[in-house]
Design goal:
Length: about 400
């Protein structure tokens, strides 16, 4: 008899979509299928040599191998403060308003654990990054979906949230530039959100890992630029996409000092911070010359245009995103099931995309293409898709 059973909390938990997809892709590779991955948002390019050199130099120092400071080294927190001041003109207190994270996904997931009680409501975007939803589920909270619709520019309609939901709502999740839709939010929307949060006593959690991947002169704002935001908002930021450091697992939570304080206590029991040389390299990334980011963004821009053009030629309805590393496209007329579409495409062409439904029911009918793959492969993939769609 198998007496090892999961806790009720995780019994309904499914593995992360990309964990399952990786398995499937490995099986196809074993059968000799050549795969082009435009699914996960993992940058293919490395950080600068300088960032890597700082990591290596520190790793060679025998004194850098002990436990690091809980919540991140003072130098790293200061670097986050310097970055926010320079990039957004937002002044933060490194001791109380900044916390290092083991990648922003960790902090996003754990914020729900420190704020939500069973029965509380978490307002989540649909489509949206899965950790908002799954973090809330583990906390025993109820989830209320805020549809992100093309006709509203993929912004949630706050006025459509019923009063009885608002009474129980504790967190409202936002994410701009947005994954998966690539949509951006104007500062005026953040002003509306901050007023809304004050009125309804809700914590805003703004997840902002794509603020530095912008195209055509667009500059993404931080919600903390809004007056009164730090009283009601915490913002998550990440070195994963800005500096091509996704595997390094370095992020930050900034803003509301109460929320940051609870997260810090929770994390002090759960993890023991990060490897000092990683934080030293992160410190360097945040405070050194940022010029190279524009050049890197130009590479994404070229890929974006290849994808948008290729998809439009194959009958997809597609907008051109101003930011982030995704193209979000509606399937051509007559095709409705995004999972079936992506599965067939993968099996028959080796091109891997993400079905929109992975991000929620309002993502059904869409697919997401990541730009984090070499430009030659992106071109090839779009050629394969076009040829395959013609045959189908
Ligand atoms: C919206 C969003 N939030 C958070 C993350 C997690 O980033 P990190 O690598 O910092 O954990 C991602 C990664 O794809 C993301 O798209």
């Amino acid at each position: 008899m198998n007496y090892i059973q999961p806790a009720h909390r995780i019994a309904g938990f499914k593995p992360y979509f990309f964990a399952t997809l990786n398995q499937k892709i490995n099986e196809l590779k074993k059968k000799g299928v050549s795969i082009i991955r435009l699914d996960m948002g993992s940058p293919d390019l490395p950080p600068t040599d300088e960032i890597i050199d700082v990591m290596v130099k520190n790793a060679r120092d025998p004194h850098q191998h002990g436990y690091s400071a809980i919540g991140g080294t003072p130098q790293f927190r200061q670097a986050c403060a310097d970055y926010y001041l320079k990039r957004f003109n937002v002044k933060l207190d490194p001791a109380k308003e900044i916390l290092a994270l083991v990648g922003s996904k960790e902090g996003v997931f754990n914020l729900s654990q420190v704020i939500l009680n069973p029965g509380d409501i978490s307002l989540v975007p649909d489509p949206g990054y899965p950790a908002y939803r799954e973090g809330g589920r583990i906390a025993g909270a109820e989830l209320y979906d805020m549809p992100l619709l093309p006709e509203n520019g993929f912004l949630p309609d706050l006025k459509a949230i019923p009063d009885d939901i608002l009474k129980k709502a504790k967190i409202l999740w936002l994410n701009y530039p947005n994954n998966p839709t690539g949509a951006v939010a104007p500062l005026s929307f953040f002003e509306e959100v901050v007023r809304f949060a004050h009125d309804h006593q809700i914590l805003i959690a703004h997840d902002a890992p794509y603020t530095d991947i912008c195209f055509g002169g667009y500059v993404a704002p931080s919600i903390l630029q809004v007056d009164g935001a730090r009283e009601v908002a915490v913002e998550f930021n990440s070195l994963s996409k800005t500096y091509n450091m996704a595997g390094w697992r370095i992020g930050m939570a900034v803003g509301n000092s109460d929320a940051i304080g609870y997260l810090n206590i929770y994390k002090s029991q759960m993890d023991s911070s990060q490897f000092n040389p990683l934080l030293a390299a992160g410190t360097h990334a945040l405070t050194s010359d940022q010029e190279w980011i524009q050049e890197r963004n130009d590479i994404y821009l070229e890929r974006r245009d290849i994808v948008v053009k290729g998809l439009a030629a194959s009958g997809f309805q597609v907008d051109t995103p101003d930011a982030a590393i995704y193209v979000w496209a509606h399937l051509p007329k007559g095709i409705t099931d995004s999972t079936a579409f992506c599965t067939r495409l993968l099996e028959e062409t080796g091109v891997s995309l993400t079905p929109g439904v992975v991000y929620g029911q309002h993502g059904e009918g869409f697919i997401r293409i990541s730009l984090g793959t070499a430009t030659t492969e992106v071109k090839q993939a779009l050629e394969h898709i076009q040829a395959w769609m013609k045959k189908a």
